[in-house]
Amino acid sequence: MSEWWTYSLSDFLMFSQATYFRLFELQNLALWPLQVLALGAGIALFVCLWRGGAKAGRAAASVLALAWLHVFWRYFGQHYATINTGAAYLAIGFAVQAVLLFWLASRRQGATLTAPAGASGKLALGIALAGLIVYPLLAPLSGRPWTQAELFGLAPDPTVAITLAALILWRAHWLLWIVPLLWSLISSATLMELHSGQAWVLFVLALVAAGARWLAARRAQA
After folding, report:
1. Which one of 3, 59, 140, 164 has the largest count of C-beta atoms within 10 Å of its C-beta?
2. pTM here?
């Protein structure tokens, strides 16, 4: 038997790029017209991020918690698990993040969103728009059908992207960053092995978000 360090990620991926993106198509067809509700929730979430404040922060945390819970149950539990035996472990991370977001929503002042002013605030809104608008466009831009579009609240990557934007404006505790950043690495690595052109999208968004949060923390200490 070969030693464990001789294995690469490709040895554990027993599916092709076509099979991976076909999952989103199957889910979208099964859930229609829930996409309309998901888009509405995403727009409402963006408005919360744009307005800022305590009430908007709690509302944003609640919407994001429901989105993470839905991805945990629907995408990982009913679709990704059919092609990846490790999906159950990944799903646990999404469930944990949902619990943390529900906890954040329950706090009166802890979920307050800072006003999206300055460079970090503009970056946060830009990342949120990427999750809400850019991600669904990646399918047709890559030559795939619209039915394979990845939407906030239904697919993991756009859900994580908008969460990263909220984490910047919340100036959230590092515990809330762990799962989104880990998923960004896992998703990007998986897409790289599948030779997908969008492999770097979430990784770059996560890197920018983490950098913006770090700079904000440094300025607060200065």
Report:
1. 164
2. 0.93
